[in-house]
Write a sequence for this structure.
C-alpha cells in the first residue's frame, strides 16, 4: 500500500518526469512508458512460460522445445521488437533537445552548492545575473548553456526534459520549451559533494507579458531602502563585508564569489531551493549557514545580534 | 585443429569480424571527421560522415551476406548427408551467427541516417 502510494505520488508535481510540461519531456515520457509497459508484458509472458515449462505435464509442454517456438519466440520476436524500438528511440533522440530559432538564451554555472544564472543582453534588453532560480516565458524555446566552476554538476529539470552535465571548462547546451505556466523544480543530478542533495533551484514559467515585466525589473539596480530599519540593514550589509562576495547592483557591493543579491527578495527560495524566502529564513541562513548546509563557502555570521539580523534580513527581503 | 575445423570456425566468426571492423570504421571515421570539423563536407552529395558509415555498413553487409550464404550452403549439405554432431553444430552455429551479424550490422548503420552527423 505504502509503495503504491509512493509510486503514485511521483506521477505529478513540481519535480516529476512523469508530469511533462513541455514537448521534449513528453517525448521522453512516452518512450519511458512504452519501454516500461513492453518490458513488463514480456517479463510476465516469459515468467508464465517458464512456470508452464516447469509445472505443466511433459506432453503439454513439449511444444516449448519445438523449432518453431525457438525460431519465432526466441529469435524473430526479439529481433522485430528491437528493430522497432531502435529507430523509435533514435527519432526521439533526434527530435529532443533541438535548438530552435528565436530561443531565449540563459547561461547557468553550477557551483558548490548553488546555481549562478545569467540572462545575456538581447536586442535593447540589458544582461543581468541572478541565482538559484530560472524564470522562463511559456511558449518560447529556451536555450540553456551550462558549465561548472569547480566540479562536475548536472542540470536537470524533470518536467522539461533530459539532464545535461555541467563540466568545468566546457559549455554544454540544453533546449526545451515550457508549454504551461507553473512552478517547477530543477536539481543537480550528478553527485558534486557533501551538499549535493541540497542543490536545487526553482523554475518559474510565466506568460510572456509577465516574463517581460520580471525581466525588466531584474535588469534594474536594487531599490533604495525606504524605512529606517532597512537603511540600517543596508549599512550592516556594507560594514559586515557582505559586498566582498555578493553583488547588489546600484550599491558598492560588487563581489562575484557568491550569488548576485540585487533582487534576492523576489526569489521564491533561499539556499538553492532549501527554504521559503522570508525574513526569518534569511536571518537563520545568515547566522547558521554552516549548520544548515555544512560545507558551503559562506561562513556562519553568528556574531550579529538578533536586532541586527532582523534588520539585515529585512533589507535583503526588501530587494524585490 | 584440422583444416576443416579451422575453416568452420573462421566461417562462424566471419560475420562477427565484419561487425567489429564496421564498428571500428564507424567510430574512427566519425570521431576523426567530427573532431576536424568536417561534418558539413560532402561526398557524392552525401555528408562525409554518413558516406563513411554507409560504405562501412554496405561492405560489412556484403561480406557477412557472403559468409551467411556460404554457411547456409554448409548447413543444407549437412542436413542432406550424415555428419558428426560436432560438424552439425558448427554449421548450424555459423548460419545463426552470420544471420545475427547481418542484423546487428544493419542496426549499427541506421543511426547515421536518423541522427545529426556530429550530435
Amino acid at each position: 500500500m505504502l509503495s503504491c502510494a509512493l509510486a503514485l505520488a511521483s506521477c505529478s508535481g513540481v519535480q516529476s518526469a512523469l508530469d511533462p510540461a513541455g514537448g521534449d519531456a513528453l517525448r521522453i515520457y512516452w518512450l519511458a512508458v512504452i519501454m516500461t509497459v513492453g518490458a513488463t508484458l514480456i517479463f510476465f509472458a516469459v515468467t508464465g512460460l517458464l512456470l508452464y515449462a516447469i509445472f505443466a505435464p511433459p506432453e503439454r509442454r513439449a511444444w516449448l522445445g519445438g523449432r518453431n517456438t525457438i525460431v519465432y519466440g526466441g529469435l524473430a520476436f526479439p529481433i522485430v521488437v528491437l528493430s522497432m524500438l531502435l529507430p523509435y528511440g533514435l527519432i526521439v533522440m533526434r527530435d529532443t533537445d533541438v535548438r530552435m530559432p528565436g530561443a531565449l538564451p540563459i547561461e547557468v554555472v553550477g557551483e558548490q552548492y548553488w546555481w549562478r544564472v545569467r540572462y545575456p543582453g538581447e536586442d535593447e534588453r540589458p544582461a543581468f545575473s541572478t541565482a538559484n532560480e530560472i524564470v522562463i516565458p511559456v511558449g518560447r524555446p529556451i536555450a540553456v548553456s551550462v558549465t561548472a566552476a569547480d566540479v562536475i554538476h548536472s542540470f536537470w529539470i524533470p518536467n522539461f526534459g533530459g539532464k545535461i552535465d555541467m563540466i568545468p571548462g566546457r559549455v554544454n547546451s540544453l533546449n526545451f520549451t515550457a508549454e504551461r505556466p507553473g512552478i517547477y523544480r530543477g536539481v543537480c543530478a550528478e553527485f558534486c559533494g557533501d551538499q549535493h542533495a541540497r542543490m536545487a533551484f526553482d523554475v518559474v514559467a510565466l506568460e510572456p507579458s509577465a516574463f517581460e515585466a520580471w525581466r525588466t525589473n531584474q535588469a534594474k539596480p536594487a531599490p533604495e531602502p525606504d524605512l529606517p530599519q532597512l537603511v540600517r540593514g543596508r549599512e550592516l550589509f556594507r560594514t559586515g563585508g557582505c559586498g566582498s562576495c555578493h553583488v547588489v547592483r546600484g550599491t558598492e557591493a560588487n563581489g562575484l564569489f557568491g550569488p548576485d543579491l540585487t533582487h534576492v527578495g523576489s526569489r521564491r527560495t533561499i539556499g538553492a531551493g532549501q527554504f521559503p524566502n522570508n525574513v526569518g529564513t534569511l536571518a537563520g541562513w545568515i547566522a547558521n549557514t554552516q549548520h544548515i548546509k555544512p560545507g558551503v563557502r559562506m561562513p556562519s555570521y553568528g556574531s550579529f545580534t538578533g536586532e541586527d539580523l532582523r534588520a539585515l534580513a529585512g533589507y535583503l527581503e526588501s530587494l524585490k | 585443429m584440422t583444416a576443416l575445423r579451422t575453416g568452420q570456425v573462421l566461417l562462424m566468426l566471419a560475420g562477427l569480424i565484419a561487425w567489429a571492423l564496421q564498428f571500428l570504421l564507424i567510430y574512427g571515421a566519425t570521431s576523426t571527421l567530427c573532431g576536424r570539423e568536417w561534418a558539413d563536407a560532402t561526398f557524392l552529395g552525401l555528408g562525409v560522415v554518413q558516406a563513411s558509415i554507409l560504405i562501412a555498413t554496405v561492405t560489412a553487409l556484403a561480406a557477412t551476406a557472403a559468409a551467411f550464404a556460404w554457411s547456409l550452403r554448409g548447413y543444407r549439405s549437412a542436413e542432406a548427408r550424415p555428419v558428426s554432431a560436432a560438424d552439425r553444430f558448427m554449421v548450424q552455429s555459423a548460419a545463426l551467427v552470420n544471420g545475427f551479424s547481418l542484423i546487428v550490422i544493419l542496426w549499427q548503420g541506421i543511426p547515421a541516417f536518423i541522427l545529426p552527423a556530429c550530435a
